[in-house]
Amino acid sequence: MSPTRSGTSPRTRRPAVRATWGAVLALGTTAALTAPLTAASAASDPGTGDRDVRAVQTEYPQTTRTLRLKMLTETQAKDNAKFDPAQFGKFADYFSSPDFAAHVAMLPTGKVLLFSFESVEDNPQKEPAPTDVIGSRNAGTAYVWDPAAGEGPAAFKAVPPPIVDMPDGTNQPRPAPFFCAGHSYLPNGMVGVFGGNLGGNGGTGAKLALVFDPWTETWHQQQDLSVGRWYPTVVTDAEGRQVIMSGQSELGWGTPTPVIEEFPARPGAVPLNPRKAPDGVASGVWKSEAPYRMDYPHLFSLNDGKIYGFGRDADQEWRFDPADQTRTQLPDRPDGGLRNYGSAVALPNGTQGPDSVLILGGNRNDPNTYRFSGGAWHKDTPRAFGRTQDDTLILPDGTLFTVNGSYDIRNYGNGDLNPNADLKYRQTETRGADGTWRLGPEQRLPRGYHSNAVILPDGRIMVTGDELQQIANNPDIKSGLNGTIEIYEPAYLHQGARPVLSKVPAGAVGYDAALTVGTTTPGQVSRAVLLAPITSTHAVDTSQRHLDLQITGRSGNQLTLKTPPSANAAPPGYYMLFLLDDKGVPSVAKWVRLAP
Ligand SMILES: [Cu+2]
């Protein structure tokens, strides 16, 4: 066990509790799902008589999955009946997906990229990820989901990563094992994915560098990074260069790399052309380092053009300057402890772009939130309870929405690799304009480790991820659809007629410039908001960003807006433009590309 680990790693620990769930679930009560279980419950298993099922399915049969999902569905409906959709929004849909979606990216085509790995387990009481597996079973998977196509297998398209021969000594080609990598957007709207898993040694960093082109829906391999990175973070800076920090190196778990790299290497130009994907492009090493003890730091490019890096350890907080590649120490986070996989967001700041960051989850015992602004930390309004593995999204109206969460890695409150969840973590929570939080409707599936959520251009929220719960509650384990997606409709979608954004310019728009757009509801528009798309994993989302745009002119069905003042305020790339009415109800967004 490495000293950098808290001792709770599912990668190295076996489950403390092994139970068969059929007998327990047959009781058909919520208590059965929330009570601690013992081996004594491993009784009459309806799956054991079936000679065709694989061993793992015998250990955890379909009947168990079906009953569990039924119970979660029923308790969700019952508990959510008290929430008025016009006040709290509602969970509106739930359907199967072909990917676990440990990683997601909202694409400027309107589709969503989902990627993860081939699982090595159908039994959710065992580690499902091929983290320690060496050879071809350590492989990546990827799909795009088209929300316009709804649900069902035809709404998804497989977009597997390139076949690669990893340097693991086996000579076994496989789809690139890019899971537990880091990612952010290139300024041309493509997704850069860096790092991955080489297998063995408790989690070993791969040097993979890949770019996904959302228009051709193809992957493009770049030159290897200089070090392996498993659990790195990537942020796009104001120039549009992707800065890559941390991650366990090619030597294995417990060897986080301090090396900072950027893509593409200087002096190469950043990719600005949406029709041209980089191929075989090199990354470059920074002159200063980022010596994070823990991986997946929260990185943000704020409106001073600097990168702020908030480590999970309270004393590992730094500011990085991409211009001269230097590092400056920031004050320690005041909670003084370790925050393990909680969310963080760069807070909306009018038309100027974010200058502060809110650190939220990561400590199940601490409901407080911590805001870094003006060079100092401030204890901010608490949520209802502490949770880890949560995702917090900035909605078009500037409110924050927390979804997902659990007790610890692969732990839902009843021990490692025990899918029996403390159901309080299913509750969503929203931070309103007054800065206070309130609990809202609950999601169907508890989703912890590897959970994700993105805001769709139509304002709905897609919730997905967490292979362990998706396996434990799969409506048909033989279907090949391993994951699930749940759709949440925020309260703003239950307020009646929405403003309409009818037209935006086809080409790129510059900074501090006039932006003329069309609307068929000019009298219903009081605000214009740019929202950066979300690409997230492991509660890390460096990309999301919220800016108000000044409305400088109105003429009939045309509005003139003023674009952000500089690339520091909003790095070059694709943004969703929403028009909002005076109640905060957003239009369906259209994509706008900012370019220098
Ligand atoms: Cu992971």
Proportion in β-strands:
25-35%
Shape: globular
- Structural class estimated from helices and strands: mainly beta
Secondary structure tally, helices: 6
Gyration radius, in Å: 23 Å
Return residue spans where pLDDT drops below 50 for at least 5 consecutive residues: 1-56
Highest-level CATH class of the largest domain: Mainly Beta
Query: Quick one: CATH superfamily of the largest domain?
Result: Galactose oxidase/kelch, beta-propeller
Small molecules held by this entry: copper (II) ion
Largest sheet: 7 strands, antiparallel
Mean pLDDT score, rounded?
Answer: 91
Alpha-carbon distance between the two ends? 48 Å
Bin the helical content: under 10%
- The total beta strand count reads 38
Which strand order does the major sheet show?
Answer: 31-32-36-35-33-37-38
In the CATH hierarchy, the third-tier topology of the largest domain is known as: Methylamine Dehydrogenase, Chain H
How would you portray this structure in words?
- With 596 residues, the protein is mainly beta.
- The chain folds into two domains: 68-494, Galactose oxidase/kelch, beta-propeller (Methylamine Dehydrogenase, Chain H, 7 Propeller); 501-594, Immunoglobulins (Immunoglobulin-like, Sandwich), CATH 2.60.40.10.
- It is 7% helix and 30% strand.
- It has six helices and 38 strands.
- A seven-stranded antiparallel β-sheet has the order 31-32-36-35-33-37-38, with no helix packed on it. Strands 5-4-3-2-34 form a five-stranded antiparallel β-sheet, with no helix packed on it.
- Strand 28 (451-455) and strand 29 form a beta hairpin.
- The longest helix has 19 residues, at 62-80.
- The chain is globular and about 65 Å long.
- Residues 1-56 have low confidence and may be disordered.
- It binds copper (II) ion (CU).
- Copper (II) ion is lined by residues 180, 450, 538.
- This is Galactose oxidase.
- Residues 1-34 form the signal peptide.
- It comes from Actinacidiphila paucisporea.
- Residues 498-593 form the Galactose oxidase-like Early set domain.
- Keywords: Signal.
